[in-house]
Amino acid sequence: MAGIFNTLNTASKGMNAQQTALHTTGHNISNANTEGFSRQRVDMKADLSYTLGGVGQLGTGVKMTGVSRMVDDYVSRQIRQETSSMSQFGTKSETLGQLEIIYNEPSDTGLNFNMAEMFESWQELAKNPESLSSKTIVVEKSNTFADTYNHILSQMESLQEETDLMIDKQVRDLNATLDNINSLNKQIFNIAIKGHTPNDLLDQRDLLLQNMSEITDFKAEFENDKYGRVSISLNGAEPNQSVVVLEYDSAEPMKIAIKNDGKIVAKEPDIVDGNPVIDGEGNPTYADMVLSLEKGAIKGYMDAKTEILDVQIADLKKFGEKVAEEFNSAHKKDMTATGEENLTNAINIFEFEGDKLSVNKDIIANNNLILAGENYSSAVGDGSRASLIANLRDKVVNIGGEKSTMENKYNSMITKLGISKQHADNMVSNQDVLLGQLQMRRESTSGVSIDEEVTNMIKYQKAFEANARVIATLTEMLDVLINRTGV
Amino acid sequence: MRITNSTLSNNFMRNLSRNLEQMQKYQNQLSAGKLVSKPSDDPMLISKIMDLRANIGGNEQYNSNISDSIGWVETQDGALNGATGILQRIRELVIYGANGSLSTSDRGAIKDEVMQNIEGLKDVLNTNFDGRYIFGGQATKTPPFSITNEGELLYKGDDINIKREIGKQVDVTLLTSGRGVVGESSSNPSDQTNELGKLLKNILTDLGEGGENDKLSGEHLENLDKQLESVLSLRSRIGAINNRLEAAKSRNEAENLNLNTLLSEREDIDIAEKFMEYSVMSTVYQASLAVGSKILQPGLLDYLR
Question: How many CB atoms lie within 10 A of CB B238?
Fold first, then answer.
C-alpha cells in the first residue's frame, strides 16, 4: 500500500513542477520581444517508480529534468551566412549610393552638363570671335567645369577616407565582439561545468555571433568543446587556410588589425616553449596572419573602395589631365604647321597641378588671351581655332588606354558605377527575401507565441490546482485517520 | 510550420515596407516626370540619355550657328541688292554723260551725282550685321570700304572668307571678302585699290573737265557691265549658300525633333500608365494596411475572461 505521506510528496512534487513550468512560461512571455531570445521549456518526466509487492510498479510523481531552449542550430548558421552577404552588399550599395549623389547625374548641374556647355561656348566663340563677351563666357564656362570637376574629386576623396574610417570602425567592432564572445565562453563554462545549461547566455552568444556575421563571414565551431563554448575562425589569405582567432579555451582572442597597405591581419602572439615572446620594451610580439574576408560589411566597404571608388578617382584624374592636355594643345598648336609645333607666346587654358584643375590665371585676368583665331595677330573675325577647340568634343582620345571621346569616357564611368550599384541593390533585395524566410524558420522554432504561452499558463495553472486538491484530499484523509478513527 | 505572433507581424512589416518602397518609386517618377533619376535605376538607359542630351545640346548650337549664318547672308543679299541698284544708276549716268551735246557744267552735275552714288555704294558695302562688317573678310570690326579725296573706293579688309560649322564636320564658307564685290587690281593682298574703285575713279575723271568723254560710252561702260555682272554672280552664289543654309536648318530641326523624341521616349514617363500603376499600388498598400489592422489584433487573451 502506498503511504499517505508518500502521496503527499508526489502531489507536492507535482505542484512544484507545475509552478516551475508556469515560471518559465512567465519568462517566455516577458521575453516575447527580446532580440535573440529562444523560448524555453521545462522538461519533465515521470519519476522513478518502485515495486509494491503483489501490486506492481508504483509511480512517484513528476521529475523536472532540466530547462531546454528551442533552437535550430542549422537555421542559425544559415542566418549568419546570409546576414554576411546581405550586409556586404548593403554596405557596398550604401557607399556607391553616396558616390551617385556626388556625381549627381543626370542633371543640369553635373559635370556632363558643364562640359557640354563649355564646348558650346567655344562654338559660340567660333561664331563671334570678335566679341570679348564670348571669350568671357568661354572663360566662365571653363571655370565652372574646373570647379565642378574639383568638387567631385574632393568629395570622392573624402568618401574614400570615410570608407577607410568605416572599415576601421568595423574592425574595432569585430575585436569588441570577439572579446564579448570570449567572456561569454567563460561564463558558459562556469555554468556548464556544474551540469546546467546556460540557456540565456547561449541566446546572448548566438545574438553576438549573428551581429558579428554582419561585420564579416566566419566559421563558428561548437563540436570541439563538450561545454558548448564556441571557437571562431576567419578565412586566411592562403587557399583553404582558416585562422582560428578565438579558441574556446583561450585566455583572449587574437586582435584583428588593418595594415597600412589595407590588408586585414590577425595578430598571433609568438609563443616559444609555451611562453609568449616579449620584446625589448616588455610587450609581447606578434606574427601577422593575413586574412581574406569574403563577405560582410568589411568586405562590402573594401569592394566599394577598391572596385569602384579607387578606380574612379584614378580615372577621373586621368580624365581631368586629358581634358586639360587636349584643350591646351589645341589652344597652343601652330595651325599652319603640319606637326605638333606650338605657337610662340602660346599659353595654356587649363592648369592641372596636384590633381586640381584650374583655368590659367593669366586668362582669368585678361580674357582676351583666349585665342579664337590662328594666332594673336590674326583678323578679329577669325574663329578657326575656337572652332578647332569646339570640335574636340568629337575627337576620340586615349584616356588610360580606353579610346573614346571625352564625354563618352565620363559617361562610361557613370554607367559602370550604375551597373555596380544596381547589382548590389539586386543582391540586397534577394538576400532580404532569403533572410526573411530564414528568420521565419527561426521564429517558427524559437519564437514566443503568446497564444501558446497563455494556453500553457492555463494548463499549468489547472494542473497546479489539481495537485493542490490532491493535498487537500490527503489532509482530509489524515484528519479522518488521526481525529476520527477509533474515537 | 509553427506560426507565432512575431511571424505575422514580421511578415506584415516586410510586405508593408516593400509596398511603401514601390509607392515611393512611383511617386518619385510621377513627381519628377522621369523614369530614372539615378544611374543605378537603369545604367544603360542613363548612359543613352546622357549621350542624347549631349547630342541635343550640340545640335542646338549648330542650329544657332545656322540661324546666325542665314541672317548674315540675308544681310549680304540685301546689301548687294542695294549695290546693284547703285551701279545701275551709275551706268545710266555714264550713258547720259557720254552724250556729246552736254555742256561742261551739265557733266559736272552728273559727276557730282556719280560721286554721291559712290558714297552710297561705300555705305551699302559697309553694312554690318550684329556689329560685324559683312564684306570685310575676317576684319569684321573696322569698316572695310573708304573713299579717297579723288573719289576712289578703297578696300581695307582681307580676302579670307569666314567659315561656320553647321553640323558635325560640316562647314559652310560665308563669302565675306569684299574682293568678291570689287575685284582686285594686283596680287598684293595689302593693296587697297581694286577694279571697281579704279573704274569709278576713271569715270569720275573722264566726266570731269579735260576728261576723255568718248571712253565713257566705250571702255568704261563695257567695264561697268562686267562689274555689274560680277556683283550679280556673287549675289547668286550667296543665294545658293542661303539655300544650302535653309536646307541645313530644316534638316537640323528635323534631327532635333528626332533626338528630342528619342530622349522623351527613354526618359519621360507615360503619365496615364504610371498613374494607373500608382493607383493599383496605392490600392494594394491600403489593402495591406487594412488587413494588417485586422490580423494583428486578435489573440487568445481577447477571449479569456
Answer: 20
Give the residue on B whose Cα is nearest the Cα of A120.
B61
Closest CA in chain A for residue B37: A106
Integer Cα distance of B159 and B180 in angstroms: 8
Distance CA A133, CA A376 (A): 17
Query: Taking CB atoms and an 8 Å limit, are B165 and A450 in contact across chains?
Result: no
CA pair distance A196, A422, nearest whole angstrom: 50
The predicted model gives A76-105 an average pLDDT of 94
- Are A106 and B53 a contacting pair at CB < 8 A? yes
Based on the fold, state whether residues A460 and A378 are members of the same structural domain.
Answer: no
What residue in A sits closest to B40 (Cα-Cα)?
A418
Interface probe with A: pick from B17, B25, B37, B38, most Cβ of A within 10 Å: B38
In a shared domain, residues A421 and A304: yes
The minimal CB distance from A415 to the residues B43, B68, B139 is found for B43
Tell me, yes or no, whether A380 and A333 share the same domain.
yes
Q: Are residues A116 and A65 in the same domain?
A: no
* Overall domain count for chain A: 2
Residue of chain B whose alpha carbon sits nearest to that of A426: B40
pLDDT value at residue A1 = 60
Please check whether residue A123 lies inside any domain of the structure. Answer: yes
A positions 68-97 inside 8 Å of B (CB): 96-97
Containing domain of residue A23, as a range? 4-69+447-484
Residue A108: all three cell numbers together: 543640369
* Partner A, chain B 157-186, Cβ-Cβ below 8 Å: 158, 160, 162-165, 168-169, 176
pLDDT grade for A3, boundaries at 50, 70 and 90? confident
| Bridge pairing between strands A219-221 and A231-235 | antiparallel
ipTM associated with this complex: 0.83
- What does the pLDDT average to over B41-63? 91
- If asked whether residues A149 and A33 sit together in one domain, one would say no
A309 and A421 within one domain: yes
Residues of chain A contacting residue B168, judged by C-beta atoms under 8 Å apart: 394
- The amino acid at B6: S
The answer on A348 and A388 residing in a single domain is yes
Domains of chain B, first to last:
54-262 (1.20.1330.10)
DSSP labels, A121-185: HHHHHHH-TT-HHHHHHHHHHHHHHHHHHHHHHHHHHHHHHHHHHHHHHHHHHHHHHHHHHHHHH
Residues A478 and A400 in one domain: no
